[in-house]
């Protein structure tokens, strides 16, 4: 005979038994008392099953070896750590199968009304799926779509349907009277189930409508209280025609009427094609107003509690619920809502509508909800493996894995300043634009003049939104009269692409766009020896500063852009992604004797800070105008129009206290984000900082947001001096060299 | 384990009408025309392509990786897709596969052609891992 | 009677009048707290709070109850720290048990960029009086032993900022504490009374139209949460506010085990355990603006996936209930409090997904503004006019984790 384990003891069960039935068969109670419905409505059979608490055992088929633990009688169940490891797999809960099924009609409930609904739909030639918990399909919730989420023993199933029919029938009313939490109370339908299963009910007494098959003695009258002896019920007191009678019994069977099981219908959004049929749609009479006993078994709320909140002025159904906590437990009000409504109806004279139902009716675990969810994808540059081979510490930045450093960011820094270094800038946004209106587009998009950029030349540009606030920056490279290549920051690329496309559409301009962000890799060759290294690998005619050419470098076709973010001569080689490792290796090999090293973001952030170059999102804020960034030079207000122009014009004369400044400090640089003090008050904060190996002291970009702007401030308890970036090579001779 | 390899071809962004002509043209069996968008096409396998319209953007494209799928492989991939696949063939579908932005050129197995799963190269590793 | 009920104070309802000195639209935390402080601090009791539904039916009764001050700009840190301080004495002041518990909050960082932000947050917050310290992964684990420092192998924890004073309190009990206090002083709270328009005398707002008749007022305050744009419309006022749904869910109750509040700056999800043992879990607001309070399975999926990466012990817990509120998100992710430019109409809005913690400070300072006609210094930066003068208080980075 098969067995399950309950609180450490084995209990035999018979085929077809639910866990609850097996426990009852063993003469025990699955929980700690309360009327059992064995229909999934009440919370009186919930247990921990195989490590998962709050499982309705009446809905859980007994299986060999199932480990069942009762919840503690007082207090909440312990949390059991999941056995499965938290693996780095996507989806993380891949051990739970998820099935997604498209279907026409879903009927929830295989009872009489469900069968009728099914037959009707079939007759109409529609595909129908009938879901019933008796067949292992526990419907969790109906969401928009409509999507019906179903929990099965072997899988989660998500049904997308055109129509949902809720045919969930009615739940039996639970008794509310003193003693109603005792062991030995069952509803009439539960009694029949137990009888059919061959479970001995002992001396059974029925109050209200008696069960159909379970043998019992029917006692006329209404329930007054249930009498306890030895921790379980021993008798029932009934009032009939004004007389109270006490009837001893082992089992009390209650047939107190019904309430619609309409939680799913009430949960579904009003506009969804969700119909409710049969008893679930019926308006049953409410039970009599409860006078004593536990109303909400989930939260152990008694009628005295309802009285208590009522007397304190909590009168709306929702307020009574929230103040008493009635209906906020596991059964989601299945047991208490009819009694609660009856209570309020009697006190107020008006019957309140039941409260809104919210997912979930049948519960799932977090793992079951997450079962098929994939984490975000992190992009890898074509040089990913090269970086790893060089000992890079990778970090995620703008959705990409990028080298943070290769072990020694200061050595990387010096390679840039004194020799030559490679940086992987494949992650930059890269758009090709072509069309008769392309100049018109760019003139409107950018605050810079564009028409005067000659083919072969490029220009640094700010991207502003309509409020005149900086949203990105990058380069414009003109290829021909009607063709441009634009670059954007790695983190801003995706938004920038949408931004450009949106405006083309909005303005109705004739411009084609090709996003090459992921098609082209890019290597920044930077440092005083960059030119020499490139010479060695075949770049003979080198573009001068802010020029760009198409050329073959180490056998790879490259778009070579001469610019500078690091402050040294820099050549950005944009090239086909599949040739990137080859190019990188050629550059590393040819530059060995020059001292070539790769540099990561950490060194780059310092290098550019010495030049005072702003990183969008790091130094700039959501509302940074060019003026606040000291970048008015990049804005041509004499252009007739560009995005942000009217906002800039309007705000130009407004008083403004916000400005990005450079700062220097003796010794090591303060931590980024440090507050800046003046006369003891916070007047701003450090945006970026770097201890410059070359200058031998700390340099910073930081915001001052209170005027008059001081010339000296306190940062990190030290005096810092406002300085004008660049901190290094102010004439920009090295970049142009 | 699916082996995703670089797909070499030509990327063309041009007026939709011009690309319609490419779509409609008869190509040798080694050529596959993937219409990413009304104005955007990726032509695999063709040596040279002529396109009308002086502003068309025509660039060599090697930024995608892909794998031609057997029927079993396709079925396996389909298990990682949470949106319904169309019945029409051949057809290019685009969306998340195992949470990775990807595309599938679905052909009809009746003609013996294989389907092609492709994604941008930066996603290749994660897609391979997730489909393993 | 259980302790939840025993500790409730009385709500005293009044028959509505047709005129009040102050009419507050919206019986959420902000509306009721304003009424409470008007009555208790400024002796202004001829006040009505007009609520479309029942008190606390908006976000004040739906939030995930996180009270913290670790924001990104000094103006906000000071404001929220003031609120935190008021919260910690609210039980004593009102005599209501709001189940206030100081737990501390960990904000986890998984990238160098996030570490940088958290370091900055620690420095700024500590300087502004909201103690926040950087902790390394081991220290984070000591504070929260359930943390998976590998983040499911996907989101390794590089460090965290530990905001020591963060707390939680039972949301609706906060609402009631203020309601009871205000009603006891004679403030009228009119439930089931939706405001459908504003009474105007020329430009000036002189009262409200409701489904149950007009009510005139010396001053009208709009404190309507996600519905603010509809009220503003009645005054032809355009606000830089968009309404977004925000969802959350709660598990069944389990034995107490999670000490601090855990929040993640990259995954935008957060968890705390309530006094009833339930895990209260939320994430970022829905990206599309909407007034809908329907919950979605997508949200549940992505949120459960995220939190279980960080806290795998949650995997086997069962989800009890999921719900949605609609949030008034301002353009700069900071609140908008004060004058509107329309005579007679004040607003408190832009509370978005983070305004529960602000209820005491928002209410008391708004009351001071109404009573004295002067904007208290802590409120000064938060005026609506900041948008026109381009002095926005951009702080999106501080709001994602409530
Ligand atoms: C899921 C969720 C989680 C959150 N978590 C947190 C958190 O952890 N920490 C935190 O600080 N904040 C959190 N918030 C935000 C916080 O709940 C809100 O910012 C705060 O409650 C706002 O309070 P309020 O009084 O302004 O608005 P509400 O509480 O929404 O009150 C507005 C009231 O106005 C009423 N009303 C609307 N229109 C009218 C009308 N025309 N006439 C009359 N009455 C009207 C409504 O019925 C409502 O009762 C969360 C929000 C949500 C939705």
Question: In words, what does this structure look like?
Answer:
The complex is a heterotrimer of chains A (737), B (132) and C (402). By secondary structure, chain A is α+β, with helices and mostly antiparallel strands. In chain A, 20% of the residues lie in helices and 32% in strands. Chain A is built from 17 helices and 42 strands. In chain A, the strands form 10 sheets. In chain A, strands 6, 7, 8, 9, 10 and 20 form a 6-stranded mixed sheet that branches. In chain A, strands 33-34-35-32-26-36 form a 6-stranded mixed sheet, sandwiched between helices. Chain A is elongated and about 110 Å long. Chain B has one domain. Chain B contains 3 helices and 7 strands; from the N terminus they run E-H-E-E-E-H-E-E-E-H. Chain B has a 7-stranded antiparallel sheet. In chain B, a hairpin with a 2-residue loop joins strand 2 (32-37) and strand 3. The model of chain B has no long low-confidence stretch (mean pLDDT 92). Chain C is an alpha+beta fold. Chain C has 2 domains: 19-63 and 171-240 and 331-399, FAD/NAD(P)-binding domain (3-Layer(bba) Sandwich); 101-166 and 242-329, 2-Layer Sandwich (D-Amino Acid Oxidase, Chain A, domain 2). In chain C, strands 1, 2, 9, 10, 11, 12, 18 and 19 form an 8-stranded mixed sheet that branches. Classes of the chains: A alpha+beta (737), B alpha+beta (132), C alpha+beta (402). Chains in contact: A-B, A-C. At the A-C interface, strand 4, strand 22, helix 5, helix 6 and helix 8 of A face helix 1, helix 5, strand 13, helix 9 and strand 17 of C.
């Amino acid at each position: 005979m098969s067995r399950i384990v309950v609180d450490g003891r084995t209990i035999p069960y018979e085929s077809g038994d639910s866990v609850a039935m097996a426990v009852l068969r063993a003469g025990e109670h699955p929980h700690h008392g309360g009327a059992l419905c064995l229909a999934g409505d009440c919370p009186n059979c919930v247990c921990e099953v195989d490590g998962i608490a709050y499982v309705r055992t009446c809905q859980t088929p007994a299986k060999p070896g199932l480990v069942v633990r009762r919840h503690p009688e007082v207090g909440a169940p312990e949390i059991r750590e999941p056995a499965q490891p938290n693996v780095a797999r996507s989806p993380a809960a891949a051990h739970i199968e998820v099935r997604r099924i498209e279907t026409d009609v879903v009927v929830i409930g295989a009872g009489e009304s469900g069968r009728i609904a099914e037959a009707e739909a079939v007759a109409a030639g529609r595909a129908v799926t009938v879901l019933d918990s008796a067949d292992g399909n526990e419907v969790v919730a109906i969401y928009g779509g409509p999507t019906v989420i179903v929990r099965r023993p072997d899988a989660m199933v998500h049904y997308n349907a055109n129509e949902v029919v809720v045919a969930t029938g009615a739940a039996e009313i639970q008794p509310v009277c003193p003693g109603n939490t005792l062991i030995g109370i069952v509803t009439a339908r539960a009694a029949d189930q137990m009888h059919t299963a061959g479970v001995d009910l002992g001396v059974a007494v029925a109050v209200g409508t008696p069960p159909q098959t379970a043998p019992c003695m029917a006692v006329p009258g209404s329930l007054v209280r249930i009498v306890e002896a030895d921790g379980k019920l021993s008798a029932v007191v009934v009032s009939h025609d004004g007389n109270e009678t006490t009837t001893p019994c082992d089992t009390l069977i209650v047939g107190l009427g019904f309430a619609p099981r309409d939680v799913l219908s009430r949960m579904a959004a009003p506009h969804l094609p969700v119909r409710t049929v049969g008893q679930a749609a019926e308006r049953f009479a409410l039970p009599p107003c409860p006078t004593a006993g536990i109303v909400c078994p989930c939260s152990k709320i008694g009628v005295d509690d309802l009285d208590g909140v009522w007397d304190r002025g909590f009168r709306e159904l929702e307020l009574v619920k929230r103040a008493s906590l009635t209906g906020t437990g596991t059964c989601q009000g299945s047991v208490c809502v009819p009694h609660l409504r009856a209570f309020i109806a009697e006190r107020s004279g008006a019957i309140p509508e039941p409260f809104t139902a919210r997912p979930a009716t049948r519960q799932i675990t977090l793992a079951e909800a997450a079962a098929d969810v994939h984490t975000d994808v992190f992009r890898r540059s074509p040089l990913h493996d090269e970086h790893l081979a060089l000992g890079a510490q990778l970090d995620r930045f703008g959705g990409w894995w990028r080298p943070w450093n290769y072990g020694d960011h200061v050595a990387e820094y010096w390679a840039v300043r004194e020799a030559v270094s490679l940086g992987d800038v494949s992650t930059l946004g890269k758009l090709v634009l072509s069309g008769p209106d392309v100049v018109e587009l760019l003139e409107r998009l950018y605050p810079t003049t564009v028409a005067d950029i000659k083919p072969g030349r490029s220009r640094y540009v700010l991207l502003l939104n309509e409020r005149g606030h900086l949203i990105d920056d990058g380069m414009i490279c003109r290829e021909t009269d009607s063709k441009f290549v634009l670059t954007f920051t790695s983190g801003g690329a995706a938004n920038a692409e949408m931004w450009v496309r949106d405006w083309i559409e909005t303005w109705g301009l004739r411009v084609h766009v090709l996003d090459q962000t992921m098609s082209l890799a890019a290597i920044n060759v930077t440092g005083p020896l960059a030119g020499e290294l490139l010479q060695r690998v075949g770049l003979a005619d080198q573009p001068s500063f802010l020029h760009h050419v198409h050329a073959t470098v180490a056998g790879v076709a490259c778009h070579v852009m001469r610019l500078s973010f690091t402050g040294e001569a820099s050549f950005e080689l944009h090239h086909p992604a599949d040739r990137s490792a080859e190019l990188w290796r050629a550059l590393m090999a040819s530059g060995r004797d020059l001292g070539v090293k790769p540099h990561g973001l950490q060194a780059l952030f310092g290098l550019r800070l010495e030049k005072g170059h702003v990183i969008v999102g790091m130094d700039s804020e959501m509302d940074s105008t060019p003026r606040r960034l000291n970048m008015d030079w990049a804005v041509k207000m004499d252009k007739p129009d560009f995005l942000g122009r009217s906002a800039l014009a309007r705000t130009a004369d407004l008083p403004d206290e916000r400005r990005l400044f450079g700062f220097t400090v003796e010794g090591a640089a303060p931590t980024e984000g440090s507050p800046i003090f003046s006369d003891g008050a916070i007047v701003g904060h450090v945006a970026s900082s770097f201890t410059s190996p070359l200058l031998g002291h700390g340099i910073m970009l930081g915001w001052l947001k209170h005027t008059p702007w001081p010339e000296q401030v306190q940062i990190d308890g030290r005096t810092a001096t406002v300085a004008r970036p660049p901190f290094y090579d102010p004439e920009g001779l090295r970049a142009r060299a | 384990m699916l082996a995703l390899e670089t797909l070499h071809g030509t990327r063309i962004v041009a007026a939709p009408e011009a690309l319609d002509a490419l779509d409609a043209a008869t190509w040798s069996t080694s050529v596959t025309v993937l219409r990413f968008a009304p104005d955007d096409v990726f032509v695999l396998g063709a040596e040279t392509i002529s396109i009308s319209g002086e502003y068309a953007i025509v660039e060599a494209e090697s930024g995608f990786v892909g794998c031609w799928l057997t029927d079993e492989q396709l079925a396996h991939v389909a298990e990682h897709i949470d949106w319904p696949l169309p019945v029409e063939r051949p057809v290019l579908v685009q969306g998340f596969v195992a949470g990775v932005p990807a595309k599938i050129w679905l052909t009809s197995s009746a003609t013996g052609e294989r389907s092609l799963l492709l994604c941008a190269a930066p996603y290749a590793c994660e897609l391979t891992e997730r489909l393993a | 009677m259980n302790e939840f009920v025993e500790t409730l104070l009385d709500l005293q309802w009044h028959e509505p009048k047709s005129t009040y000195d102050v009419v507050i639209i919206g019986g959420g935390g902000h509306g009721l707290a304003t009424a409470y402080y008007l009555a208790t601090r400024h002796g202004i009791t001829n006040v009505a709070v007009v609520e479309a539904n029942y008190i606390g039916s908006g976000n004040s009764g739906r939030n995930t109850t996180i009270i913290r001050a670790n924001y990104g700009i000094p103006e906000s840190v000071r404001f929220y720290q003031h609120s935190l301080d008021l919260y910690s004495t609210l039980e004593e002041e009102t005599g209501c048990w709001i189940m206030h518990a100081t737990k501390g909050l960990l904000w986890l960082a998984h990238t160098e960029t996030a570490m940088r932000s958290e370091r900055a947050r620690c420095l700024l917050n500590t300087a502004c009086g909201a103690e926040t310290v950087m902790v390394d992964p081991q220290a984070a684990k000591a504070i929260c032993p359930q943390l998976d420092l590998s983040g499911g192998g996907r989101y390794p924890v590089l460090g965290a900022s530990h905001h020591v004073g963060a707390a939680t309190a039972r949301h609706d009990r906060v609402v009631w504490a203020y309601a009871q206090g205000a009603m006891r002083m004679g403030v009228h709270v009119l439930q089931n009374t939706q405001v459908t328009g504003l009474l105007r005398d020329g430009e000036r707002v002189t009262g409200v139209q409701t489904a149950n008749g007009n009510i005139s007022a010396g001053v009208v305050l709009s404190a309507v949460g996600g519905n603010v744009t509809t009220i503003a419309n009645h005054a032809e006022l355009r606000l830089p506010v968009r309404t977004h749904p925000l969802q959350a869910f709660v598990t069944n109750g389990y034995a107490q085990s999670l000490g601090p509040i855990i929040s993640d700056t990259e995954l935008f999800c957060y968890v705390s355990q309530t006094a009833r043992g339930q895990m209260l879990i939320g994430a970022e607001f829905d990206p599309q603006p909407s007034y809908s309070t329907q919950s979605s399975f997508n949200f549940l999926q992505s949120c459960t996936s995220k939190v279980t990466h960080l806290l795998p012990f949650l995997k086997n817990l069962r989800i009890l209930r999921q719900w949605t509120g609609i949030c008034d998100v301002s353009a700069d992710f900071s609140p908008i409090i004060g004058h509107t430019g329309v005579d007679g109409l004040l607003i408190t809005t832009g509370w978005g997904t983070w305004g529960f913690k602000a209820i005491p400070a928002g209410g008391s300072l708004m009351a001071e503004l109404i009573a004295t006609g002067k904007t208290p210094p802590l409120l000064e930066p938060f005026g609506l006019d900041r948008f026109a003068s381009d002095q926005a208080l951009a702080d999106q980075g501080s709001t994602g984790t409530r």
